Amino acid sequence: MAEIDAGEILPNEHVQQMAADGTVTQMHRGHAYASEGDTFVIDGQRFEVTDVTHRTLGDLTDEDARREGSEDLEAYKRRLERVHDEFEWDPESDVVCHRFEPVGE
What we know:
alpha+beta; Sulfate adenylyltransferase; 3 helices; 28% strand
């Protein structure tokens, strides 16, 4: 268990604010950037990583997309294509899901 920078899991200030607001409660990344039990702080609020799971893009659901701040899976796919140069949705691509929740001090 370690204290990590929020930017390790949440790639930019906008997404970090969405997590602080409770809109984003998980983030898929290409690699594991944290371990279960790691913590990070956004605007004075501490969050704990509660689950780190290896998956593929094809495993993602509308619920996963909503947990990452998108309306549904199609909107999530469009967002990824918009923010990543030369991104192509490949259902076989490996990703790592980082779930987190706020914790009391």
